[in-house]
Amino acid sequence: MDRKLLMLVLILVAAISVAGCVNGEGPGDISIPADYEEETSLEWGDYAVTQYLVDSDNADEVLDELQDSAEDAGWEVTADWAWSVPGYNVAVALEKDDEVMGLHATGINGEVRATVITGPLDTNDVDNGEEDTNDNDVDQPPTEDVDGEDLEDVPRYPGSVLIEHRTGTYNDDFAAELLYLTEDQGDEVSDFYEITLEDEGWENINTGSETVDGETEYWVASYMQDQEVGIYIYPSSDWEDHTIIDITYGEGLSI
Questions:
Q1: Residues 238, 174: contact at Cβ < 8 Å?
Q2: CATH class name, domain 161-251
Q3: Residues spanned by CATH 3.30.310 within the chain?
Q4: Whole-angstrom distance, CA of residue 51 vs CA of residue 20
Q5: How many CB atoms lie within 10 A of CB 136?
Q6: What CATH topology corresponds to 3-123?
Q7: Across 45-172, where does the E strand assignment appear?
Q8: What pLDDT, on the 0 to 100 scale, is given for residue 200?
Q9: What is the pLDDT of residues 20-58, one digit of tens each?
């Protein structure tokens, strides 16, 4: 599973409300099969994200089914076009008029979670929503923060640099994704947040790690009242010997 999709699933999984079978028009006016159960619908900046749970063990077939439905509704596949929204890698990208659509399907516990993302075409040159950037040299590790505030109850890792800042809504409540960069190792960052979140009043703090392509990645997830936070910590693919701290935060998810 993609690391950002995994992180979003970690903090949203208990907030999913199954809406029952869907039969008719879905996002982008595509036809959604009757056996797709709508799990989650959220807005992230200018994008709308809808997830379905499908009783199938074949993600490729589900993706093909959604693509066929989209093409039947007049959407055209855009070849070799990378498009991303925080939390999702898009397996198939399509265009129609001034809109874009991304489709993704992944197997989870013997079922398939299918994601449909829609948004305006003219905002696709940024990752999503309200992302702020600065004039850092892209060939060197950033040394200046992008615009945007730290989260009040999720402290910044000491010495890290804010490199991406996005805000949006989930069920009309505030949601955010912040990315920081540090030269420290992932285990140091994980230990910091495990201790610091407890000091800040967060409860039920869960931690874990996994080895991906020979590198260890870490995650920390917790809740406080109606707020949830998920922190994914992994080696930077852009800057050697640096670590990414990916914080996803939401209100009103009721984990």
A1: no
A2: alpha beta
A3: 3-123
A4: 12
A5: 16
A6: TATA-Binding Protein (3.30.310)
A7: 47-54, 76-77, 84-85, 88-89, 92-96, 99-108, 111-120, 161-170
A8: 92
A9: 334 457 888 999 998 999 877 777 667 888 889 999 988
* C-beta of residue 63 within 8 angstroms of C-beta of residue 114: yes
Neighbours of 109 (CB within 10 A): 8
How distant, in Å, are the alpha carbons of 49, 74, 220 from that of 22? 16, 20, 34
Cα–Cα distance measured from residue 175 to residue 11, given in angstroms and rounded to the nearest whole number: 11
Q: Rounded to whole angstroms, what are the CA distances from 41 to 59, 96, 232?
A: 20, 21, 22
Q: Which amino acid is at 124?
A: N
Q: Where does the chain hold its CATH 3.40.1000.10 domain(s)?
A: 161-251
> What residues have CB less than 8 Å from 150, skipping those under 6 apart?
156, 162, 178
Place of tokens 């955010």: 176
pLDDT of residue 130: 43
Residues of the chain with pLDDT under 50: 1-23, 80-87, 123-134, 253-255
Nearest to 244 by CA among 100, 141, 166: 141
List pLDDT tens digits, range 66-99. Answer: 999 999 999 999 854 444 444 455 678 899 998 9
Indicate the length of the chain as a whole number: 255
Beta bridge partners of 232: 219, 246
H-only helix segments in 58-213: 59-72, 186-199
Are 112 and 59 within 8 A, CB to CB?
yes
Judge contact between 47 and 90, C-beta under 8 A: no
What is the pTM (predicted TM-score) of this model?
Answer: 0.55
Q: What is the CA radius of gyration of the chain?
A: 18
